[in-house]
Design a protein that fits this description.
about 150 residues; mainly alpha; flat; Periplasmic heavy metal sensor
Length: about 150
């Protein structure tokens, strides 16, 4: 039992040191998103500034879509509990949810294209190839039953 306390202290200290080193390495080795974008796609300061503005303008649009999708998803879950998936109310709400999801995906696609348009042509195409599939997978029609 006498060895437990010193061993415990050593383990806690080792964990704290590992945590600190990990945070320091990540901070030093992981540039912020804007630095990465500028470096990865060879952007000028003017191009990066334009992209920052596009992203700032899109933030409220994206937040609105997320809020509406969340509300509709809850509404679908309530309708499913009360009336089942075959009810007219549920099917109408599902259609509205899917339309909203398509609207969100289309807005996101246009947003990405606006960002790509600020880049040199080849870099813009590479950007869309890199981020497009990730965004499309996220914005694909979501099963409202999925939690």
């Amino acid at each position: 039992m006498k060895r437990f306390l010193p061993l415990f202290v050593v383990i806690v200290l080792a964990g704290a040191v590992a945590f600190g080193v990990t945070k320091w390495v990540c901070h030093k080795g992981c540039p912020d998103e804007n630095t990465w974008l500028q470096t990865e796609f060879s952007l000028s300061n003017e191009q990066l500034a334009a992209i920052k503005n596009i992203r700032a303008d899109y933030g409220p649009v994206c937040a609105s879509h997320c809020s509406k999708l969340s509300t509709e998803k809850k509404r679908l879950a309530n309708l499913e509990k009360k009336h089942g998936r075959d009810s007219a109310d549920y099917l109408a709400a599902l259609a509205a949810f899917e339309a909203l999801n398509r609207e969100c995906a289309e807005a996101t696609r246009k947003h990405l294209e606006a960002i790509a348009a600020q880049m040199p042509h080849d870099q813009g195409r590479r950007y869309l190839e890199m981020v497009g599939p990730k965004i499309t997978a996220t914005n694909s029609p979501i099963s409202p039953a999925a939690k």
